[in-house]
Amino acid sequence: MPRRPANFEGIPTLAVLPGRRALGDPDLRDRLYELLEHDHLPHSVGSRFVRLIIGIIIIDVLAMILASVPEYDARFGTLFTVVKVGAVAVFALEYAARLWSVAGHSPRKMSRAQDRLEYALSSLGIIDLLAFLPASIALIAGQRAIRRRCVRCWRRSTPSGGRWSAAS
After folding, report:
1. Alpha-carbon dihedral 134, 138, 143, 144, rounded to 10 degrees
2. CA distance 61 to 42
3. Would you say residue 3 has pLDDT above 80?
4. What percent of the chain has pLDDT above 70?
5. Is 109 part of a structural domain of the chain?
6. Domain assignment of residue 35, yes or no
7. pLDDT tens-digit map of 147-165
8. I need a surface site. Which of 19, 58, 60, 97 has the fewest CB within 10 A?
9. Which pTM was predicted?
10. Do 112 and 104 form a contact (C-beta atoms < 8 A)?
């Protein structure tokens, strides 16, 4: 069987088939998990990724603030929408990558589906989901439709039909 060079621990690895990956080589899921969860050393790819995410958050918040000014929204509305769609896409891809890569990395050695469910229901998983889900729903359904539904719910849930009365 062909020998492969020693891995990072100095232990030689054997290839399963010639030209194929060795059994000890980390696969894409493992490398992505390490990048997203553990690679935060200065000047590493993981720290650059974290800085990129923080930069996207700052740009998205600035775009939302500026979009609340009618003059800026009239002039740069399309740019603000592009920024919001881009941020939602990046956060959705990050969530999907985390959900996919977490499989097999639970200390309890559960199945891949259970690992993913555990992450999705964890506080970090919920925060990651909430980072993009409301904005994606708003982009898909449209802002006006959501406002109408909120007003209808408000009117149905209050005794005065959503109107302010002088008695209150």
Report:
1. -100
2. 26
3. no
4. 71
5. yes
6. yes
7. 677 667 767 776 665 565 5
8. 19
9. 0.65
10. yes
Q: At what angle do helices 45-67 and 70-101 cross, to 10 degrees?
A: 150
Note whether residue 9 is domain-resident: no
**Cα–Cα dist 44/34, whole Å:** 11
Q: What angle do CA 115, 117, 119 make, to 5 degrees?
A: 70
Q: Is 29 a domain residue?
A: yes
Sign, Cα dihedral of 88, 94, 97, 101: negative
Q: Give the C-alpha separation, 130 to 92, whole Å.
A: 10
How far, in Å, CA of 106 to CA of 16, rounded? Answer: 26
Structural domain that includes position 148: 25-155
Token couple for 26: 């980390």
Tens of pLDDT along 37-91?
776 677 778 888 888 999 999 999 999 999 999 999 999 989 998 999 999 999 9
What is the 3-class SS of 111-135, one letter each residue? CHHHHHHHHHCCHHHHHHHHHHHHH
Q: Could you tell me if 99 and 24 are in contact, meaning their C-beta atoms sit under 8 angstroms apart?
A: no
- Any idea what the CATH number is for the domain that residue 125 is in? 1.20.120
CA distance 165 to 168: 6
Phi and psi at 95, nearest 5°, equal: -60, -45
> Which has more confidence, 22 or 32?
32
